[in-house]
# Entry
Amino acid sequence: MASSTIVLRDADLTVPPISLDTDPEQRIDAWRQAHFASQAVSEVGKLWADKQADDSHSALSWDAGSGAMRRGGSGIEGGLLLGRLRLELGAPGGTPEEFGLSGKSLDAALEFVRERGRAIAGEPKQESVPAPDLPDHAVGRGAAFDESGGRAFEEIAALYGACAALLEGVRGAAGAEASEVQVWPHHFDMAVLVVINRDESGAMRKTIGVGLTPPDSVEPSGYFYVSPWDRDGTPDGAGDIGHGRWNAHMAVLPIGVLETMDPGQRADAIAGFAAGAWNACAERLTSV
# Structure
């Protein structure tokens, strides 16, 4: 099947302003804590949603109105209010119960979801499988969550909110071959995957993923990314992508670079990076 050429323009992508005023180390710590907090709300899907082969029953959606990551199941809905470091749990359409995470351990948060979940939705559909290889942090070793860096949690929520808006623009331009905006609790990345080409059987041959990833070995401050994939071999990236850089085939825009900019320039920088990197990746994928 022929490759689909989708050109993105900066104007297709609307990104709200973001503030990055807190100490970078404090923001990274808050990001790590939020990563562990997402395991608790993901538990709702792992236990009460229909199990999926790609593990998407554990994935979270983004609620722009409340700045929350959400996961539903059969007769139950959960949420993580990032900026306030709180869980919500309740029946669909009802008033949810809140659980403040600060001062509580991850085990306590998981127990809250499991016990209250049973009261709301009954016995789970299946057992939960913990996410492997989570990042090293005191919370992962049993320490309590700590929201003393409250402003940093608000900045993390704003980053995911900005990414969600960006990805909805990508989805609007890409059409039916774009996935939903999802947060994958294993890596805590928010992403959209767009199929560029399928083979005769309908299997994916070429894709482009766009998203936001927490600090990792690629970039210690976290980053927005555009990542192409070709089943027959993905070519390395090339070409100017504004404030971003190439990491082999993947284009990355570090949060650390955005920190150095005037706040009024950041949204345009994110949109310009995403459009430029997308077009560079799409051109390389569709030329081979």
